[in-house]
Structures are given as structure tokens and as C-alpha cells.
């Protein structure tokens, strides 16, 4: 009995759609028009190649399949920001998904109307319905379970995906080889192929979910470390400020004692100036929020020690709805990133940081600016790709802002890097 082969153009379309589903995990290397043109050309070449090799002898069938898979791999690696391992991993997933989609569609075709040609309207309608359902679901699943950060694909993960894809492909096609002249029924062969391909897709999906959960756990651990670090800095700063304030009180007592013992005009003027300076320093960090006062005082002392000019105008009473940890995360992390950035500036006169917290149209605006001569490139997630402005740190800031219905926006212009955090006023 002659087995009806899946039309080669059906297979080409399945492979193109499968590659596009998994290519979304990485940004394109070139601009969109260039990427679209490259995709169209690549798909056309793949379709022509599969169509021309559809009737090759059995000895050439496997080399032609390898060549088609290599073409999928080259597309992923050449048009997407993927390294060799990532391209191999995505190619393996795309190939086995294409096998599943093509198998399911052709099996339904043979069940419903086996006499219809592949180009008949009913056949084309079935093709569109099945491919839309399969790839639409996988596209939705990939978008819904997108990794928070770019996954780190190891050689072991790629090897497992490739071995699984090759195994599923080999097992699903073994049924087409007769054993001692005994050939299974057509539909039994289709059932086996579909089930094996489905098992391969499920296994690779589970593997990908494990990689995604590992990446999520790593990110949460990094964010938790940021929170702990900021809170520990807050506690240490609070103790340091308490000691400083006690020292100021002692200085006041000493000033009073000196003034009582000596009554010279110049000494009085100097002592009055010292006392005025102390009072001015104490007033600089009274924002109305004790947690914010502690953070700003600690950051100010750090900036003074490292030749950084930090100016701040803040109404701390606006942050009463934030917890201690949230204030430490938002304010402390952004200022840490800003000081780390300006410390790379060789000119001390350009080590500038400006901070402001104020009400604006029913919102609380936290605005932080620092001088930054080099342009700051933002990644696909809207956060800086350069480590000097954070990474996981700013992700924790964004998470804290979004927890209160707020937003985090970043901007670089005219050698100034700006972080804006907008929170609904409560």
C-alpha cells in the first residue's frame, strides 16, 4: 500500500512558522525592514528546496533533511541575537514542532477527505485551521511564559534538545519502514508519528519551562540580595548617624564651655559660625520621613568622601505609604547606581547628582539625575544594558514601583542620565 506523503510545501510552511514562533525569544540583529526581507527570502529558498527535493531517492532523503535543518539554524543564528548554542536549542524545538504540526494536519486530511488534492479549497482551509490552532497556541504559550531575562542556554541544554528532537524524528519515521514484508496500516503509522512528535514537543517544552524557572529563581535571588543590601546599609547608616548626632551634641557642649571661659570677639564669632554650620547640617536632611533622612544623610556623607556633588530637594512626607524596604530599594538603589556611574568621571567638577521628590498632578515624582558623558543603551526590557547603571538593581526598583501602580522610566540626553519613578499619591 502506498502511503500518502505530506506535501513538501506544507512541510516548508510548518518549518517557517515554527522557527518564527521560537525566534521571538531574541531581538533581531538588524532593523525590522531588513529582517522582514531576510525572512521572506529565507522562506522562499526553503520552500523551493523542499519542493525540488521531494522526489529524491531514499539515499538522498536524509542529507536533504539535514540541509533543510541547517537552513533553519542559519536563519536563527544570522537574523537573531543568538549565539551558536541558543540557535541550536531553538532550532531543535522548532523542527520537532514543525513535524508535529505537519503530522497532525495531514493525518486529519487523510481521515476527512483522503481523495482531495493538497491544493483543493477544503485542504487549504484545513491547513489554515490546523496551523493557526497549533502555532497560535504555541505563540501564546511562549509569550505568556516568556522568561524575565534572556535564558542562559548551556551546551548540556542544547545537546539535550538536539538529542530529543533527533530521537523523536527517528522514532516517528521508523513506522514507515516495513519489517519482513509486514506493513502497518496507514492510520496506525500516522497515529504513532503524531504521538511521538507530540511527546517530543512536550518534553522540550518542559525542559524550557525548567530553564525559565531557573532564570526566574536567579533573578528573584538577585533582587532579594539588593533588598537585603539596601536594608543593611540603612541600618548601618542609622547607627552611624546616631553616633554623629551625639558627637554634634558633644561639640555644642564644648562650644558653650569655651565661650564661658573666653570672651574674645574673634572666638565668639568663630564659635557662632561653627554652631550655625552644625544647625545647617542638621536641617539639610530633615525631609519629614526618618527613613529617607537616614538614606540621604548616608549617601551625602559617601558623596562628600568621594568628591561627588549631591544636591537633593525632597518632601519625604509624600512617601509615607512606602515601607522601609521599599524606600531603601527605590531611593538607595538609584543613588547607588548614580554614584557608581559618576565615580568613573575623571573630572571632579562633573561628578554631579541631582535628586528631587515632589508632588505632581496627584502623583509622587521621584527624579534622579546624574552626569554621564557616554550614551546609555537601553535593552529590550527598557533597562540599561551597561552595568554601571544597574541591571537586576533597577529591576527591583521597577518591581517596587509597579507594586504600587507606578512606573519607572529611564532617559539619557545631553550627557545626563535620568531616572523617573512616578507613583500614585496616597
Automatic annotation (TrEMBL):
The chain crosses the membrane at residues 35-52, 58-78, 120-141, 153-177, 189-206. It comes from the Bacteria. Keywords: Coiled coil, Membrane, Transmembrane, Transmembrane helix. Gene3D superfamilies: Histidine kinase-like ATPase, C-terminal domain. Pfam families: HATPase_c_5. This is GHKL domain-containing protein. The keyword Membrane applies. The lineage of its organism: Bacteria, Bacillati, Bacillota, Clostridia, Eubacteriales. The keyword Transmembrane helix applies. Residues 234-275 form a coiled coil. Residues 326-424 form the Sensor histidine kinase NatK-like C-terminal domain.
